[in-house]
Amino acid sequence: MFLSLLAGLLAAPAVDTLQAVTIVADRGVVVSRTDTVLVSSTLDAAGTLMLVPGLYVGDYGYAAGLKSVSLRGFGSAHTAIYVDGVRVGNVQSGQNDLGMLGIENFGSAVVDYAQNSISFNTARPVFAGRPVAGRIRLNAGSFGTWQPYGRVDFRLSDKVSLSANLAGNVSEGDYPLEDGSKRANNDIKQIRGGADAWGLVDRGDWHAKLYFNKAGRGTPGSLSWPSTDRQNDRNYLAQGTLRKQFTDDYELRASVKGSYDDLSYKSEWGDSDYKQTEFQVNTAQKYRLQPWWSVSLAADLQWDGLKGSVYEESRTGVVIAAATAFRTDRFKADLALEYGGVFEKDGGSWNSFSPSADLRLTLTEGLDLVAFARRAYRVPTFNELYYPGYGNTELKPEDAWLTDLGLDWMRSFGSWTLKARADGFHNHLTNKIISAPSEDPMVWLPYNVGKVKAYGADLLAGVEYAFDDWKAGFSARYGWQKALDKTPDSYTFDQQIPYVARHTLVLTADAGWKGWALGAIFNLRKGRRDGTGEMPDWNTLDLTVGKEFSLGDGMTLGLKAAARNLLDCRYDIIRDYPMPGRSFLGGIEFRF
Question: Would you say the C-alpha torsion 94, 113, 88, 574 has a positive or negative sign?
């Protein structure tokens, strides 16, 4: 387990708005390579992350199918997901299903390249002079899709605010396919919600969170192997975070979490059920030795238990990290050494030491040189180790090195802001866990025979304009990536890792004037392959238009319409798991 905390993500200090921060146990490494994506009311978690070229988002069925994410050539089990600074775990398979996250309540997603993680952050309440605020929204559109959402924020005092939310997601998911048939067993009925409380204490702040998700859905399978299986999900989460500055030089950060997940499968091959329980305690202490020099010590403890229909396991994880940070006007350096230990009830254990370094040098006003290097270590999941007929208890952890070197540039000229970024990266993964045929070709087992070398470049150029009632922006993001299988004797040796695109292009444009808003997103993927060969390139164009009307006394009514895949490109993200063609979504939202 690795908790990356962007310490002190301070909310904008607006009038009559409680200041709040996202707290997590910080290792002392302040990452200089992140991307922040604002969450849209017309995109789900997978669609939001598709805006970042360095990510590969897997989608196994659109409405009901599993949605996973991986970063720069690594698997989804090697990419951590955080909610408000605390890690979301899945010790069974290592894949967190993005479709089970309540993204409608988030304000942003932060992609952290050095920590190989993605953090979703809950939108903070803004009261604008009143003790109660909120929003009610209904989206509806193609394929029998209905998405109601409501949130109410309460200002309990000058130091405490409370927020409660509830959302639903209902879809038939029966979009038409190229042969005239419709996608089958792709329906979902889902309800999710929770409550957040934020507060200020003397020289500090805290955040408490409750969340639940309940869903019943089909598991559509591929076109080659259609499925009539059904899946029920129940997820419950409670967590709290605290930051306290005891003296001018000493600061404490802490978080605790408890979660319970129940996945039930009903299949013609037999039913199964998996119950996962997780507890976390994370602490970090930071001490400033000099105005330009600080040190920190972090300690995390995590327990995971899985009770399945076919096996039961539990494990305890411990992380201890020491770090130091140096700051001058032009140079920043963060150095850390982390120990990670994983211990299982049957006596099995894994230990690792992971160094990291993060540097930022200001070359001239508005131009920075940045670099990082880090070791990343992934212990096999329970399924990889213990699943009957599949697991391999002799597996070794995946061992990776991540490196990055880049330039950041940003300047403002009156109403205009220009920005550009260039990144080169090289990631090397050994002991990659892959599935391959055993002595019986019909039986596939996991083995440590894989190696992956991923290298490439991410480029960004953007411009923003703001003057009086006008706002506009345009950005172009291009990613070139070679993620090559370097496994000895592999039949895919020196070929691109399945589904990782060699070329990715994302163009976004938006404009706003007196409540009107117009946006466009163009997404292109080229140079993909899987185990059976080359895959077709694909591109999509999404358009949105909206208008917000003032109703007086701080209340507004908003209307929005979105056209997805407007050019009706027929494509698969995963082979034989077709994505929808052209579709439409409309929404109405009342804010008070």
Answer: negative
pLDDT digits (tens, 9 = 90+) for 178-229: 999 999 999 999 999 999 999 999 999 999 999 999 999 999 988 988 899 9
With H, G, I as helix, E, B as strand and everything else as coil, classify residue 105. helix
Contact in structure between 133 and 153 (CB atoms under 8 Å): yes
d(CA 450, CA 337): 26
Are residues 183 and 198 in contact, defined by beta-carbon separation less than 8 angstroms? no
How far is Cα 395 from Cα 432, in angstroms, rounded to an integer? 10
pLDDT in tens, 22-45: 333 344 444 557 888 888 877 788
At 39 the pLDDT is 84
Rg, the chain, Cα only: 24
pLDDT score, position 440: 66
Q: 217-226, 228-237, 298-307: which has the minimum mean pLDDT?
A: 217-226
464, two tokens: 């923003």
Three-class SS state of 384 = helix
Query: What are the residues facing 78 on neighbouring strands?
Result: none
SS3 per-residue string spanning 431-478: EEEEEEECCCCCCEEEEEEEEEEEEEEEEEEEEEEEECCEEEEEEEEE
The pLDDT mean for the chain works out to: 89
- Size of the chain, expressed as the number of residues it contains: 592
What is the enclosing helix (H) or strand (E) of 339? strand 331-344
Identify residue 432 by its one-letter amino acid code: K
CB distance 285 to 323 below 8 Å: no
Residues 400, 375: contact at Cβ < 8 Å? yes
**Amino acid found at 164:** A
Instruction: Answer whether residue 53 shows pLDDT above 80.
Output: yes
> So where are the chain's domains?
34-591
Q: In the numeric block, which tokens belong to residue 225?
A: 């192997």
Going by pLDDT thresholds of 50, 70 and 90, the confidence category of residue 569 is: very high
Q: Which residues pair with 523 in a beta bridge?
A: 506, 540
| Of 397, 352, 396, 358, the residue nearest 374 (C-alpha) | 358
Beta bridge partners of 297: 285, 322
Pick from 184, 27, 19: nearest CA to 112? 27
Q: Which residues contact 164 (CB under 8 A, 6 or more apart)?
A: 151, 152, 193, 194, 195
Q: Contact at 8 Å (CB) between 477 and 458?
A: yes
CA 433 to chain centre: 22
Summary count for the chain: helices (H), strands (E): 2, 33
Residue 98 has pLDDT above 90, yes or no: no
What does the alpha-carbon distance between residue 19 and residue 15 come to, in Å, rounded to a whole number?
10
Residues in Cβ contact with 306 at an 8 Å cutoff, skipping those fewer than 6 apart: 91, 92, 274, 275, 276, 277, 312, 313, 314, 382
Beta strand 250-266 pairing with 188-201: unpaired
- Whole-number pLDDT of residue 20: 34
Q: What is the mean pLDDT of residues 333-348?
A: 92
- pLDDT at position 436 is 66
CATH code, residues 34-591:
2.40.170.20
Buried b (16+ CB within 10 A) or exposed e, 545-570: ebebeeeeeeeeebebebbbbbeebe
Tell me what the mean pLDDT of segment 420-435 comes to.
91
